[in-house]
User: Which sequence fits this backbone?
C-alpha cells in the first residue's frame, strides 16, 4: 500500500489513483504525488493492494481461490477498437456461480466494466499468476452502500457471477460475534513482494495473521478511519505480514466454530506490513444477508386475468397463463398445488438463473366452482389465489 503523509490517512488498495484519472482526462501523463503513486489507466495496470511475509500456498487446499482479470474501458475514450485496460484482483468462490471480491476492484473512477467474451474473466485456483482456463464473468453486483473518499472506503464488497460452475466453495462467515481478538487467520493473494516493490508474486501466497481488534476495535493507529462494524483489522502487532498491492478482493480465512470460513475481504490499509498499521478488511458477516439475497434463487409469480384480490376467471376450453420468474442468483424450484377439475402444466419445475417459465392453466369441466391454488417457490413468499370456474360467483381465497 502506498505511504500516506497528508490528509489521506489510509491509502486504499485501489486499482487506479484519482490523480491518474484526472491527468488522463486532460490528455496528460500522470505525475507521481507525494501521498500516493499514481498509476495510469493503461493495459495491465495492477490494483494497489501481495501478501508480504507470506509463503507459497498449497493449491490442493485453495481450490476456492479465484484470480480475477478485470477489464475496464475508459469512459472518455471514443476511439473505435480501443482495447481498454486490465488489472488483477483476488476473489473467493462462495457458491456454484458466485465469487466474492472487493467493490473497488470492479468500480474504477472514469471507466466502465467490460463483460462478455472479450471482457472480465476469472481463473480458478491458478497454477501460477495468470495461468489457467478462463471462466467469463457475466454479471457484477456491487454493494449499494459502497462509499469511497480521500480518507477511507466503506462497504467495500462485491459479487461477480461466472459462466461455468465452481466446483469448490468456501462458506462465508455469518456470525457477527466472530472473530475475536487474537484469532488466527490467513490472507491469500498474488500481490507484490514488498511495499515498494513492483514485482508480483508468481505463486499464490498465504500469510498467517491474527485479528487485532475483535468486533469492537480499535485498529492500530487508524482511529476513526476504521469502522469495526463493517471492517475487520488483521495483521501481526510487530508488522512484517500483510496484504499489499495486487491482493485486493482476496479472502481472509478464519476458523469459526471449528470450520474454515471467509471472514474478510482485502480492502485497504496504510503501507504494507508496517507496525501499528494492520490490513483493513471488509467484515463479511456484516454483509451476510446481502450476500445470501444476491446469490440465492428468488421466484416470483404473475397471473393474467386476475383481480387485485387474487381471484381469476376461467371457462371450459380456455387457457390461462402464469409466469414464474427467477429474480435471484441461482436456479430455484416451484410447486403449485390445486384442487381438481383444473390442469396445471407443469405444476412443479425448476427455473434457471434469470429465466422465466410459462405455466398453463386449463379445464374441460362444465362445473361452476371455486378452485384454490397455492404457489410455493424457493426463497419466495407463499402465494394463494383462486380460479372462478365457468362464471362461479363469490369466490374468495
Assistant:
Amino acid at each position: 500500500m502506498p505511504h500516506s503523509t497528508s490528509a489521506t490517512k489510509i491509502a486504499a488498495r485501489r486499482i487506479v489513483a484519482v490523480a491518474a484519472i484526472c491527468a488522463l482526462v486532460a490528455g496528460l501523463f500522470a505525475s507521481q504525488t507525494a501521498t500516493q503513486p499514481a498509476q495510469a489507466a493503461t493495459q495491465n495496470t495492477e490494483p494497489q493492494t501481495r501478501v508480504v511475509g507470506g509463503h507459497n500456498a498449497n493449491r490442493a487446499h485453495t481450490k476456492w481461490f479465484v484470480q480475477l482479470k478485470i477489464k475496464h474501458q475508459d469512459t472518455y475514450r471514443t476511439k473505435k477498437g480501443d482495447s481498454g485496460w486490465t488489472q488483477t484482483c483476488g476473489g473467493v468462490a462462495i457458491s456454484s456461480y458466485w465469487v466474492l471480491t472487493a467493490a473497488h476492484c470492479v468500480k474504477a473512477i472514469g471507466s466502465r466494466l467490460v463483460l462478455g467474451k472479450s471482457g472480465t474473466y476469472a481463473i480458478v485456483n491458478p497454477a501460477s499468476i495468470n495461468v489457467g482456463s478462463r471462466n467469463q464473468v457475466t454479471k457484477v453486483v456491487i454493494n449499494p452502500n459502497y462509499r469511497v473518499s480521500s480518507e477511507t472506503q466503506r462497504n467495500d464488497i462485491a459479487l461477480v457471477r461466472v459462466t461455468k460452475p465452481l466446483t469448490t466453495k468456501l462458506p462465508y462467515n455469518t456470525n457477527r460475534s466472530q472473530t475475536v481478538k487474537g484469532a488466527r487467520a490467513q490472507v491469500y493473494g498474488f500481490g507484490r513482494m514488498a511495499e515498494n516493490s513492483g514485482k508480483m508474486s508468481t505463486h499464490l501466497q498465504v500469510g498467517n495473521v491474527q485479528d487485532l481488534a475483535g468486533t469492537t476495535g480499535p485498529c492500530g493507529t487508524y482511529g476513526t478511519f476504521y469502522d469495526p462494524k463493517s471492517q475487520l483489522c488483521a495483521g501481526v502487532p510487530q508488522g512484517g505480514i500483510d496484504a499489499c498491492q495486487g491482493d485486493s478482493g482476496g479472502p481472509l480465512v478464519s476458523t469459526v466454530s471449528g470450520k474454515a470460513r471467509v471472514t474478510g475481504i482485502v480492502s485497504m490499509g496504510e503501507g504494507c506490513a508496517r507496525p501499528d498499521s494492520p490490513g483493513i478488511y471488509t467484515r463479511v458477516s456484516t454483509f451476510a444477508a446481502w450476500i445470501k439475497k444476491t446469490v440465492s434463487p428468488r421466484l416470483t409469480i404473475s397471473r393474467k386475468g386476475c383481480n387485485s384480490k387474487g381471484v381469476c376467471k376461467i371457462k371450459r376450453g380456455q387457457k390461462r397463463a402464469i409466469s414464474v420468474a427467477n429474480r435471484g442468483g441461482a436456479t430455484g424450484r416451484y410447486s403449485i398445488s390445486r384442487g381438481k377439475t383444473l390442469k396445471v402444466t407443469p405444476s412443479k419445475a425448476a427455473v434457471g438463473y434469470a429465466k422465466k417459465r410459462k405455466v398453463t392453466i386449463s379445464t374441460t369441466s362444465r362445473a361452476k366452482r371455486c378452485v384454490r391454488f397455492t404457489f410455493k417457490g424457493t426463497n419466495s413468499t407463499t402465494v394463494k389465489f383462486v380460479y372462478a370456474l365457468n362464471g362461479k360467483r363469490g369466490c374468495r381465497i
